[in-house]
Amino acid sequence: xxxxxxxxxxQHPEFELKLGSFHFRTQPLAVFTILHQEYAEAALSRIAAxxxxxxxxxxxxxxxxxxxMARLSDKPQHVQQIHKNIQELxxxxxxxxxxxxxx
Length: 103
Prior knowledge:
- The chain is built from 3 helices and 2 strands; from the N terminus they run αββαα.
- By secondary structure, it is mainly alpha-helical.
- It has one domain (2-75).
- It has a two-stranded antiparallel sheet.
- β1 (18-23) and β2 (29-33) form a beta hairpin.
- The longest helix is centred in the middle third of the chain and has 35 residues, at 40-74.
- The protein is elongated.
- The two termini are 43 Å apart.
- 7% of the residues are buried.
């Protein structure tokens, strides 16, 4: 929610939007404050649109991650190969970092 507020604030600084509180134990509830009442409807509409966009994006990432996890659990040798690839990538980075530190 903080990222949504940050995005809306960057696009519409005149809202002077602040996140008062955010509760999500039962049904999510967010409390916002704005400096001028005349911006209330526009701010609420912008928050809702940005929040829905962000949730769709996160749902897409979640689906991609679940697909990857399903593929990996079916073929454990792929996990070993990925781990090996990551180690190979880390080696040059580590030596480069050491060289930079000694200069």
